[in-house]
Amino acid sequence: MIIDVSEKDTEGVNKRLEKYRHRKFFLAISLIIAVSASFETTFVSKLSSASIPSIQYGIKQTADQKLVKQISLTNITVNSSPKQGPKATKTSITANDIIGEFSTKFNVKEKNRSINLTLAARALNNKVIYPGKVFSFNNIVGERTLKNGYKDAYILNNNRYIPALGGGICQVSSTLYNAVLLADLQIIERVPHQVPIIYVPLGQDATVYYPKIDFKFKNNTSSPIYIRSKVQSGLLTLQIYGKKTGKIVQIKPQILKTIRGRAGSKGYIVKTWKIVKDSQGNVNKSMLSRDIYAPLKKN
C-alpha cells in the first residue's frame, strides 16, 4: 500500500496508518481462526467416518423416562482403573476386526429385567483385555445393588424362578460367552444354569452370581482385544474386536439324554463341541463341556 501526502496531512495520515495496521492485524487473526476451524472440521470428519459403528443403548426406566446412551469409537484410547480388570495406561488400541460376535433376544416388556441387562452390557462396553490377561465378568460388572441401579427380576434358584435383584444378568454373561467362544479365546471359568434356558442353545450358557459364580476368559492372542456391546429393541449383541487370524469356529451341542420332569418339563444331558478350522484348512474338534440341566420345577 502506497500513501502520497504533504506535510500538512501528517496527523491525518498517522490516523489512517493506525487504522490500516489494526485492519491488517485483525485480518491476520481471522485467517488463523479460519485455518484452525478448517483443520478441526477435517479432523472431526475423518473421525466420524471411521469404520467402527456407533453403539446405542435404549430402554425405558420408568413410564415417563428413557435411558439412551450413544457411544462412537475409532481406534480407541483407554484409561481403565485397576478395579476394572487388567491395569491400563492411556494407550491407543488398534483392533478394527470383529473376531467374535453373538446376539440374543429379550422381552422389552419385562422392564426391570431389561434395565438390568442394559446396565451390565454398558459395564462391559469398551473394556480392553491385553495379551495374557484374564477377564472377570463379576469384577467388571460389579455387585448388582439398588445403588448401582439394578432392579428385581426373575432368577433361577433351586430349579425355580424367583424374583431377586439383578435378574437377567446371566443373559449378558451367556451372550458374551458365545462371542468369546467364536473368537477362539481361552475359557478359564464357566458354570451352566441349573435348568434349560431359552435365549442360547443348550450347553452354551454361562450363569453368574456375585461374588460366588463368575465367568472368566483369557486373552490368549498376541494382541489386545476389546468388547463392544449393543442393546437395541429386544436384541443384545456382544462383539469381540481384535486381530483376525483366519480361523472359523463352530459350536455344536449334542443332546445325550432327555430327562422327563413333572407337568411336561424336561431336563437334558448335553455335550458341547467346538470345531476350529484354521487359515490352512486344518480342522480341530474338541469337547467344550458336558452339562446336566434338571427339569424346571413348576411353582
The tally of strands reads 16
Number of helices: 4
Helix/strand/pairing class, anyone? alpha+beta
Largest sheet descriptor: 4 strands, antiparallel
Separation of termini?
95 Å
Q: What's the order of the H and E elements?
A: HEEEEEHEEHEEHEEEEEEE
Shape estimate: globular
Mean pLDDT: 78
**What's the helical proportion of residues?**
10-25%
Rg measurement, Å: 29 Å
**Biggest β-sheet: strands ordered side by side in the sheet:** 5-13-12-6
- Kindly estimate the percentage of residues that lie in beta strands according to DSSP: 35-45%
Task: Summarize the topology.
Blueprint: H1 10-48, E1 55-62, E2 65-71, E3 76-78, E4 91-93, E5 97-105, H2 111-124, E6 128-129, E7 134-136, H3 137-141, E8 152-157, E9 160-165, H4 169-182, E10 186-189, E11 216-218, E12 225-232, E13 235-242, E14 248-260, E15 266-277, E16 283-293
Antiparallel strand pairs: 1-2, 3-4, 5-13, 6-12, 7-11, 8-9, 10-11, 12-13, 14-15, 15-16
